[in-house]
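Proteins fold reproducibly. Take a tokenised chain:

. . .
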Amino acid sequence: MGALFHQVLGWYMVHITYWTVFLLMVIESTFLPFPSEAIIPPAAFKAASGDMNIFLIIFAGSMGAIVGSLFNYYLAKLLGRRLLLKFVNTRLAHLIMMINRQSRKQRSTSLITENFHLNRTADSGHSSPDFNTCRVGQYEDS
């Protein structure tokens, strides 16, 4: 396994160009799981050795990330609604909706309880500190 890694790394280091950085960053920014940590550091190493320009690497990497993100955006804009509507009638979608409803119900219950507690505190004469009338000097050590 180590020999294969060194062979691939050696090939990559020989063939890396600004276009390679751009294309790999496009792939990294789409839905394919490819880490940018495998792209930019070797290119930066080549820049440190004087074979490439670091500013052009940053530019190529940034443009690749933007193009990959735009690809995802337009793909979602084109297919997103249809895929979402197909997803709605699946068991997984119903499970997610049920979990969301439960968490919303728990949050609203805790808010109602919290409001009830605050109202009872206000009715009993206890109130939270009012920062407009609070004097800072009275809390300082003498």
Notes: The two ends are 71 Å apart (CA to CA).
